[in-house]
Amino acid sequence: MKLAILSRNASLYSTRRLVEAARARGHSVRVLDPLRCYMRIAPGGFSMRYKGKPVSGYDAVIPRIGTSVTRYATAVLRQFELMGSWCPNPSDAILRSRDKLRAHQLLAAQGIGLPATVFGDNPDDTVDLLSLLGPPPHVIKLSEGTQGAGVMLTEKNSASRAAVEALRGLYANFLVQEFVAEAEGADLRCFVVGDRVVAAMRRQAAEGEFRSNLHRGGSSAPAQASEEEQAVAVRSAQALGLGVAGVDLIRSARGPLVLEVNSTPGLEGIEGACGVDVAGAILDFVASQVIPLESNRCVRPVRRRPGARGAALTPL
Asked: Which CATH architecture has domain 116-179?
């Protein structure tokens, strides 16, 4: 299999592990900086160049796209898709996951448990908007934040109103959620690959902090996700169209609630905590979905139509 990994930095742990896993399995792999890819788009076809040389013939592309380059990097990924490369996380799925409001709407439409969430635009509606959540504490999140950045906890209605007004003054997109106290500052990161959870870790917020992100000083330990939690994690990834995802859950009195679905989950924390070869699981999944040809163009796998008999097949 001829594989490309879209990453700004080949020395990052996650990128490095994917390269190692690919080479260990005999695949040809190259790391491409998406910002150095440039494209030609015309009715006659799609083409791409990288640092002055043509880019073509990749069976699959694994995106490792940071939030700061989402718009351009997903356009590059879309070009690869149009050129015939298979992607475990398609460009549109990444865009869905990066917009927290959109992601929450799509998950809720599938009946997946979430903390109650409100969103509004007009300052005149702030008081009534917050009343839809009930009394504080409230969690206020930027719609496109990551690693705990842009997440605030307010303990009084006056503080919630002030935070909302400040964010509106900055023309920021945000949403407000209920605070689930029984989670006690802990969440469960389920790493989904394909249709299964390959590893799970419990993250605990540092003392005096409510965010459990490891980048915010949180600690991690291997965890056993229940069957219900695993099912919720897989359904959440599939609802957004992601083949690889880090699904963050909290354990509440009403069952598992999804906080976020990350389309570019880091590997270092979960591999270190769980001792699981997550990179290898990703590569095995990708390899199972593409059939390299001598021309280095890929054929999508096929499946039987529901209810069909015999050899009737339809492309995925």
From this structure: 2-Layer Sandwich (3.30)
φ/ψ region of 292 (left if φ > 0, alpha if ψ in -120 to 50, else beta) reads beta
Distance of CA 20 to the CA centre of its chain: 22
State the amino acid at position 5 in one-letter form. I
Q: Which residues of 259-285 are buried (b: 16+ CB within 10 A; e: fewer)?
A: bbbbbbbbbebbbebbebbbbbbbbbb
pLDDT tens track for 126-169: 899 999 998 999 999 887 655 556 788 899 999 999 999 888 88
For the chain, residues with pLDDT lower than 50 are 293-316
Alpha-carbon gap, residue 201 to 269, rounded angstroms: 9
Q: Are 114 and 106 in contact (CB under 8 A)?
A: no
Nearest Cα residue to 300 out of 101, 4, 9, 81? 81
Sheet holding 186-193, edge to edge: 219-222, 196-204, 186-193, 244-252, 255-262
Q: What's 194's DSSP letter? A: T
Cis bond upstream, residue 292 (ω within 30): no
Q: Domain locations in the chain? A: 116-179
Render pLDDT for 243-287 as a digit per residue (tens, 0 to 9). Answer: 999 999 999 999 999 999 999 999 999 999 999 999 999 999 999
